[in-house]
Specification:
Structural class: alpha/beta
CATH class of the largest domain: Mainly Alpha
CATH topology of the largest domain: Hypothetical protein af1432
Number of strands: 15
Radius of gyration: 26 Å
Helix content: 40-55%
Distance between the termini: 66 Å
Strand content: 15-25%
Number of domains: 3
Length: about 550
């Protein structure tokens, strides 16, 4: 990918993305993205133009860190692999900082996600290098890949099937330019298959048949899911991304009279792919290393990767594919732009993915949405009016507070008794797309501590929070939710709004009824009952009144 390459985020009809309201165009902004994969770790440094809604890649680096080579007995990341990871990350951070980036967004995928010591590895990275790495789930990984592909490819009005073959997992997504209809992740990848099943090469016919059957069995649930969501008459385009797909494309292009200079958008027919696979499976790794189109490490794992690609195409009954150079790391850049409010319209669905995934859980657990929205409104009013008194949050907590407010009663779906503990469990083990694992845990913990006791060190929900900063944010946001939830005493909301005055050691809340002569003595009593907890947690004295 050239340094001058620009991601023109435009739709198929040439319409560009509009700036979010309130965002003024200004100078270029630089951001770094690091993708910690099973086989390789990638760095992108992007220059973002807020006025044009575009980004260009000004630095792209890759290092083969081989985190997927885990201890065969325990499944843990090996010391050697972690050391390779540390060295690469340290170098990548120096590179990113040399470009004066304002932030480095980092994600770890399958290898770290599955290793028993994966979270310890990420904590060590934070302690030694000072960066927080998002440990993304399989569906979240698929969503980021979708964003990355969408940033560099016009979908027009056609649905697309996105296939990303990684070292430890394969992501298959059905999407169009407005929505991801199905996001799947399967624990089958090139490194995993090579490590677990390939002991001798060239492959015998029996071993090859076994691998194909294993791949098909593993992928069947994902393929069935996407096929069910293809509408009648639609013929989706298959888009393949990842190092495996690019290497296959390079080998396929050997048949062309004039091979392409770049492979983004390059089309490979299924018949040509089959010919490439037939050549590869009869070679030894040494013979494959002689091929100029692939590097030494790719030569070791390309056969299982090629078999995944071939088998998936057969299962999907497609005749060809299109290559995309963009994937998860570019998706991290787009996701950062969305979070910064720099993109709207065509990505509006994606920019509201957090809200949509929360609402999905609200509906799933039969939460009273009207009451939840009122509690959330009161909580955000308290957040906005108590900065510097109840909380010192820099903005991150506001969105987490909203999510926890919407879901804080979901535990009632299980049992009314101690429902806040059930809420923690349901949120913790539910799916919240668009949230990092750390943020996911924080949302669950905020809901957990909106009632009854304050956090205690022995609580599992408190121990799960990774950092002191996260615990501080949870404690502050949970206190605000406690106050907002205390007003929610009746089936129908009766408090229209709150007038809040906060000063040093003093918090005054006036309840504004939804109509004149409304008796709010129940809500006043409930809120005043929080005074002791507020004093204990923040040292602030709470007083409550009702507007005449």
């Amino acid at each position: 990918m050239s340094e001058a390459e620009t991601a023109d985020l435009t739709s198929g009809d040439g319409q560009g993305l509009t700036l979010s309201r309130g965002i003024k165009s200004g100078g270029l902004r630089r951001v770094g993205a690091i993708d910690i994969g099973t086989n390789s770790t990638h760095l992108l440094v992007a220059s973002v133009d807020p006025a044009l809604r575009t980004f260009s890649i000004i630095q792209a680096e890759k290092s083969t860190t081989r985190l997927g080579e885990r201890d065969p007995e325990t499944g843990e990341l090996s010391a050697a692999a972690m050391e390779r990871g540390f060295k690469t990350l340290r170098r990548f951070l120096e590179l990113a900082n040399s470009h004066q980036v304002e932030q480095v967004v980092t994600a770890a995928t399958s290898a770290v996600r599955e290793a028993p010591n994966g979270r310890d590895f990420l904590q060590s990275i934070k302690d030694e290098l000072g960066i927080e790495v998002d440990l993304v789930s399989g569906p979240e990984e698929a969503r980021l890949i979708y964003l990355g592909v969408l940033s560099g490819m016009s979908f027009g009005e056609k649905p697309h099937l996105l296939l990303d073959i990684g070292g430890g997992s394969t992501e298959l997504t059905l999407a169009d330019s407005r929505d991801a209809r199905a996001l799947t992740s399967t624990r089958v990848g090139a490194v995993r298959l090579q490590r677990d099943f390939i002991k001798e090469e060239p492959l015998s016919p029996q071993r090859r048949s076994f691998l194909q059957a294993f791949i098909q069995g593993s992928l069947e649930p994902a393929v069935d899911k996407v096929l069910r969501r293809i509408k009648s008459g639609e013929k989706p385009v298959l888009v393949a991304t990842s190092g495996t797909a690019m290497a296959i494309g390079a080998l396929a292009a050997v048949e062309d009279d004039r091979p392409p200079l770049k492979f983004h958008g390059y089309k490979v027919s299924r018949s040509r792919l089959d010919r490439v696979v037939e050549r590869l499976v009869v070679m030894t790794p040494a013979q494959r290393r002689e091929m100029s189109a692939i590097n030494d490490r790719r030569a070791e794992i390309i056969v299982p990767g090629a078999l995944i690609l071939q088998t998936t195409m057969k299962m999907l009954a497609v005749d060809g594919l299109v290559l995309s150079e963009r994937a998860l790391r570019e998706g991290l850049i787009v996701d950062w732009m969305l979070r910064q409010g720099l993109l709207e319209d065509r990505f509006s669905f994606q920019s509201s993915i957090r809200q949509r995934t929360v609402i999905h859980q609200v509906q799933r657990f039969a939460v009273n949405q009207e009451r939840a929205e009122k509690v959330a409104s009161h909580a955000l009013t308290l957040y906005d009016r108590t900065k510097g008194v109840i909380h010192q949050d820099d903005g991150q907590g506001r969105e987490l507070l909203w999510a926890a407010s919407m879901l804080h009663t979901c535990g009632q779906h299980i049992n009314l008794s101690a429902y806040h503990k059930h809420s923690w469990y349901l949120i913790r083990h539910g799916e919240l797309l668009g949230y990092s694992e750390a943020e996911h845990l924080m949302v669950a913990a905020i809901a957990r501590y909106h009632r009854r006791s304050l956090p205690k060190k022995r609580h599992e929900s408190w121990q799960a929070l990774a950092t002191r900063e996260n615990r501080k944010c949870v404690g502050e946001m949970a206190l605000l939710l406690r106050l907002a939830a205390a007003i929610d005493r009746r089936p129908d909301p009766v408090v229209m709004s709150l007038d809040v005055e906060a000063s040093q050691h003093q918090l005054r809340i006036e309840l504004v009824p939804d109509r004149s002569n409304r008796d709010l003595s129940l809500e006043q009593w409930s809120l005043e009952s929080c005074a002791e907890t507020v004093q204990e947690a923040s040292g602030v004295e709470l007083s409550v009144s009702v507007q005449d």
